[in-house]
Amino acid sequence: MFSRVFSRLGLIKQHIRTMSTKTSEAQYYTKKIASAVGDPSLRFNHTCLRIKDPSASVEFYKKHFNMTLLSKKDFPDMKFSLYFLVMTKENLPKNEKGENLVFANRGILELTHNWGTEADPEYKVNNGNVEPHRGFGHICFSVANVESTCQRLESEGVKFQKRLVDGRQKNIAFALDPDGYWIELIQYINESGEGPKTDLGNRFNHTMVRVKDPVKSLEFYQNVLGMTLHRVSEHANAKFTLYFLGYDIPQGDSTGSAETLLELTHNWGTENDPDFHYHNGNAQPQGYGHICITCKDPGALCEEIEKKYNEQVVWSPKWNHGKMKNLAFIKDPDGYSIEIVPAELVL
């Protein structure tokens, strides 16, 4: 069995190397979307999590992680509200009217509240880490000093899934938010020389989801959505591999300080099990919602994807086909949703 797993891992590594230079080597998503690959306006804008009680969750992120409520939008007809938070920073993009351009940013956390859940004692969010509903794993904030950050959070009463002293990895921790979502904490200032040497404040570094077949998922995010594979981290002892993808990393940043990356976690062998699948967060019980990418002309992006991939990709809904206009949702190979909206959209 182990020989088959390691053989499969070798094929995956070789496939990743070849597909980065030769589109023809791709097995599943063989056509590169020019509207994505060649578009510098593309951003990984936000990650959406459903929450039970906004008064608890919004204040949690503001108090403990210095996030700012950038925008709130109520939808009375559908009985839900959206809260968009960002790490406190200067020079946030605005339009000519001085309105915040939520979708022109990186590193946004969208909290979705379905009205009434806060009063339901039986309602509980699925955090994505408990069987049989595993899929979404965590969000990650990178900080200048992870030890002092964890000490401060503990003194403020924040609960932890894993402290720095727990387990094998002593350089990461996992805090818990009010709904039990995991928040990984890592440090971006280090002695190796990689990344910034100064305190940049907290960064919304990445969002992690588990994937069944890394070859298929990597082709989708690179060839269809135009992301770049920035780093691969293999953990042979625990039999899993991490893949970090995203759009351009600003000059001076590293993968540890950048905003925002997508981490795909592959537990070896899942790709060989025809009955295996992950929970996408949108089936019951719900929790994780989606990630969102934005660009200057999402209509053109969606049109090219439809034309080149037709029935091979799943939309829910297609561009401008749902109740809410100026958006689309495409699903990746594991059924996770990716929202696509204009960067200039004003809520």
TrEMBL record:
GO terms for molecular function: lactoylglutathione lyase activity; metal ion binding. It is an enzyme of class 4 (lyase). It catalyses: (R)-S-lactoylglutathione = methylglyoxal + glutathione. The active site is at E184. Pathway: Secondary metabolite metabolism; methylglyoxal degradation; (R)-lactate from methylglyoxal: step 1/2. GO terms for biological process: glutathione metabolic process; methylglyoxal catabolic process to D-lactate via S-lactoyl-glutathione. Its cofactor is Zn(2+). InterPro entries: Glyas_Bleomycin-R_OHBP_Dase, Glyas_Fos-R_dOase_dom, Glyoxalase_1, Glyoxalase_1_CS, VOC_core. Its EC number is 4.4.1.5. Zn(2+) binds at E110, H138, E184. Binds 1 zinc ion per subunit. In the homodimer, two zinc ions are bound between subunits. Residues 43-188, 203-343 form the VOC domain. Keywords: Lyase, Metal-binding, Zinc. Catalyzes the conversion of hemimercaptal, formed from methylglyoxal and glutathione, to S-lactoylglutathione. PANTHER family: LACTOYLGLUTATHIONE LYASE, LACTOYLGLUTATHIONE LYASE GLYOXALASE I. Belongs to the glyoxalase I family. This is Lactoylglutathione lyase. It comes from Zygosaccharomyces rouxii.
